[in-house]
């Protein structure tokens, strides 16, 4: 089974954890490290012969257009991560429409292939932000990967969302982030801070379980997770641990993971899931959107 490799392409200072520490107006004054960090990933993907999906932040694409051209020319898929990295809960339909439109105008200019996939910053498509669904449709987004079907994270998740692809709306398919059901509980199986926190062997075993349940795992990471030399910000203790834990080991671990499974981009899988008659109907809670 081919698992799905995704990168949320943003600079080290664009993350939601720094919302109160680095205001957006200060981003331009921060040292950009995204090109160096992403190049490490592109080299690794080339060596392993894998193609990934990059959810690109419009703000970054505007400042590093050659990086986006380089990854698209290497065969990777360009998808959208919004423009200014606002969580949906910080926006409303009008400001989200403007943010998404601005990002897509930049990305669609840079990508030779259509940009039709979206991931919300910090998985912020939740029961409270379902108003974003018709906005995504209006911008010709055909698949989304923003819902974490998980209830134990304080800042995101829809605890009872389906774990397999399902329709959010007519023509808009959701590819939920990967969880494994263990003893009646859902456990994330999907990269990011979880991949840095879990022992390597646990990540590998969870992906095997996900595949044994008939589902590809969706792995995600950010370029800054491969940059142990980035500036350190004064985060509260728990966030600090989650944010900076194991940064120096991530590249080698991902190399191992790429060797242990087959990997590919998300759009092709979305297309095949959209054709499957068994793909789940829109859940009743999504009608609120
Ligand atoms: Zn992000």
What is the global morphology? globular
Helical residues, percent = 25-40%
Secondary structure tally, helices: 10
Strand content: 5-15%
Mean pLDDT: 94
pLDDT < 50 runs, ≥5 residues: none
Bound molecules: zinc ion
Give the distance, in angstroms, between the N- and C-terminal Cα atoms.
33 Å
CATH topology label: TIM Barrel
Walk me through the structure.
- The chain is α/β, with parallel strands linked by helices and 289 residues long.
- It has one domain (2-288): TIM Barrel (Alpha-Beta Barrel).
- Helices cover 36% and strands 15% of the residues.
- The chain has helices spanning 34-48, 58-63, 65-73, 93-110, 132-138, 192-197, 200-212, 237-244, 250-260, 266-275, and strands at 2-9, 53-56, 77-80, 117-118, 143-144, 166-169, 172-174, 179-182, 185-188, 218-221, 262-264.
- Strands 1, 2, 3, 10 and 11 form a five-stranded parallel sheet that branches. The chain has a four-stranded mixed sheet with strand order 4-5-7-6, sandwiched between helices.
- Strand 6 and strand 7 form a beta hairpin.
- Helix 1 runs parallel beside helix 9.
- The two termini are 33 Å apart.
- The site of zinc ion has 5 residues, from loops.
How are the elements arranged and paired?
Layout: E1 2-9, H1 34-48, E2 53-56, H2 58-63, H3 65-73, E3 77-80, H4 93-110, E4 117-118, H5 132-138, E5 143-144, E6 166-169, E7 172-174, E8 179-182, E9 185-188, H6 192-197, H7 200-212, E10 218-221, H8 237-244, H9 250-260, E11 262-264, H10 266-275
Parallel strand pairs: 1-2, 1-10, 1-11, 2-3, 4-5, 5-7
Antiparallel strand pairs: 6-7, 8-9
The chain binds zinc ion.
């Amino acid at each position: 089974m081919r698992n799905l490799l995704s990168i949320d392409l943003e600079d080290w200072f664009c993350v939601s954890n720094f919302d109160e520490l680095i205001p957006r107006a200060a981003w331009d004054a921060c040292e950009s490290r995204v090109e160096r960090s992403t190049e490490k990933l592109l080299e690794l993907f080339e060596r392993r012969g894998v193609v990934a999906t990059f959810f690109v932040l419009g703000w970054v694409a505007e400042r590093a257009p050659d990086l986006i051209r380089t990854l698209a020319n290497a065969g990777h898929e360009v998808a959208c991560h919004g423009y200014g990295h606002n969580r949906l809960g910080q926006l409303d339909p009008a400001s989200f429409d403007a943010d998404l439109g601005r990002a897509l105008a930049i990305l669609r200019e840079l990508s030779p292939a259509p940009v039709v996939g979206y991931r919300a910053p910090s998985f912020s498509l939740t029961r409270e932000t379902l108003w974003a669904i018709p906005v995504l449709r209006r911008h010709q987004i055909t698949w989304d990967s923003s819902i974490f079907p998980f209830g134990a994270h304080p800042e995101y998740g829809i605890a009872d969302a389906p774990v397999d692809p399902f329709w959010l709306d007519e023509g808009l398919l959701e590819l939920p982030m990967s969880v494994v059901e263990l003893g009646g509980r859902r456990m994330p199986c999907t990269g990011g801070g979880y991949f840095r926190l879990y022992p390597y062997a646990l990540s590998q075993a969870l992906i095997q379980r996900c595949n044994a349940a008939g589902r590809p795992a969706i792995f995600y990471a950010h370029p800054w997770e491969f940059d142990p030399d980035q500036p350190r910000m004064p985060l509260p203790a728990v966030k600090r641990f989650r944010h900076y834990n194991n940064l120096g080991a991530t590249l080698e671990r991902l190399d191992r993971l790429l060797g242990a499974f087959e990997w590919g981009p998300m759009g092709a899988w979305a297309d095949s899931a959209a054709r499957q008659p068994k793909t789940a109907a829109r859940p009743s809670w999504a009608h609120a959107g």
